[in-house]
Amino acid sequence: MLNHKTAQIKKIVKGEILLKQGEITKYGYFVNRGCLKSYAVDNAGKEHIMQFAPENWMISDLDSFTNQVPSLVSIEAIEDSEVSLISRSDFGDFSKLEKKTLIELAIKSRNNMIATNKRIIGLLSWSSEKRYLDFTETYPTLVQRLPLKLIASYIGVTPEYLSDIRRKIAKK
Amino acid sequence: MLNHKTAQIKKIVKGEILLKQGEITKYGYFVNRGCLKSYAVDNAGKEHIMQFAPENWMISDLDSFTNQVPSLVSIEAIEDSEVSLISRSDFGDFSKLEKKTLIELAIKSRNNMIATNKRIIGLLSWSSEKRYLDFTETYPTLVQRLPLKLIASYIGVTPEYLSDIRRKIAKK
DNA sequence: CGATTTTTTGAATCATATCAACGTACGTGG
DNA sequence: CCACGTACGTTGATATGATTCAAAAAATCG
Q1: In Å, how far is B47's CA from the nearest CA of chain A?
Q2: Distance from CA of A28 to the nearest CA of B (A)
Q3: Could you report the per-residue pLDDT of B30-82, keeping only the tens digit for each?
Q4: Least CB-CB distance to A50: which of B103, B114, B120?
């Protein structure tokens, strides 16, 4: 979809921060290697993960990228990674894109929207155990790859409680 | 964006159900008049509202519409309404759409995605009071128009608890 | 008006968070 | 290859935000 050949590439180490909550972002990031996360920090200083982006995923604060407003999230590498930078000049104005690109974009957006809608339904109406089980089914490779505390943050519970959930599941 | 002039129109009364959770949907709905909701019912029989769709909004289960899988939500009129039906033959295949339509779609999808992302951040990291206050700022007209219990369901609390929240806010 | 729905109130209970302590695994430098 | 430090995971005790249930009060509607 994006012209990765000409895109600017950046290598980052685990822990490196590409965007800080409250800043206005210039870029979206396409992950070539490694894994990033986007997360919001609440008033109590706790981190809540919005998205994981392993290989071939894009990550950004879409509102900040599109409308140049302060970002609601920070973006940070959770592994040593390599990303392609997506700039507003390449991608901010849809009318410059080819029809073929727009169709690809529409399909990806739709799939993304479906997954995101499901996440909202899960947060509203599923038990935390069910949210965890759904995560393991939807992202089996991430379950292996990520520490428990990050998964806990993504599904909306504390690490301690996810530990309880796992124990209860194991007992069955 | 959609060809509303030729679209099939349907009038429905308050309480009428256009899609039942678990069914495969044929249509998306564009609301000309009135207001609909989409909602999931959990194991305990409780209703959780995914989306409100007042005038000029579209509502559907996108996964069910696109992939012909069972819907995770039901769609129901919360006021007497009039909707235009959007069918898969009109809208299922992006390559049939004109470039201009694709651009409009991309913009609407992006705005929708921004709002949806914000909702997830809210559910993960905001207090229920903050979620309510954000709702009143984001959808001031709906606050007037909708009963408290529906707003409670949307922000993810019980009506009783939203009543408490309102009292606490009023005291300040 | 009366009937139905919505909102409020209060008490008991539950799911999950918090905090602190301990055990475990891991990675890096010596 | 070992030892140490740091990050991660588990456990249990206690605290809290939110739900549940029941009932009364208020608003809405035919």
Answers
A1: 8
A2: 14
A3: 999 999 999 999 999 999 999 999 999 999 999 999 999 999 999 999 999 99
A4: B120
Structure tokens belonging to residue A153: 């943050």
Domain B1-91 fold? Jelly Rolls (2.60.120)
Burial of A151 (0-12, 13-18, 19+ CB in 10 A): buried
Q: How far apart are CA A119 and CA A17, in angstroms?
A: 25
Tokens of B76: 């129901």
- Tell whether the torsion through CA atoms of A101, A103, A108 and A113 is positive or negative: positive
CA A26 from centre of chain = 17
Residue that has been written with the tokens 């899609």 in this structure: B19
| Contact assessment for residue B8 and residue B85, using Cβ atoms and an 8 Å cutoff | yes
How far from the centroid of its chain's Cα atoms is residue B39's Cα?
8
Interatomic CA distance for residues A131 and A147, integer angstroms = 17
Cβ neighbours of A68 in B, within 8 Å: none
A46 touches strand C (CB under 7 A): yes
Q: What is the mean pLDDT of chain A?
A: 94
Q: What is the pLDDT of residues B157-171, one digit of tens each?
A: 999 999 999 999 998
Does at least one atom of strand D sit less than 7 Å from the CB of B136?
A: no
* Amino acid occupying residue A31: V
Under 8 Å between Cβ of B145 and B78: no
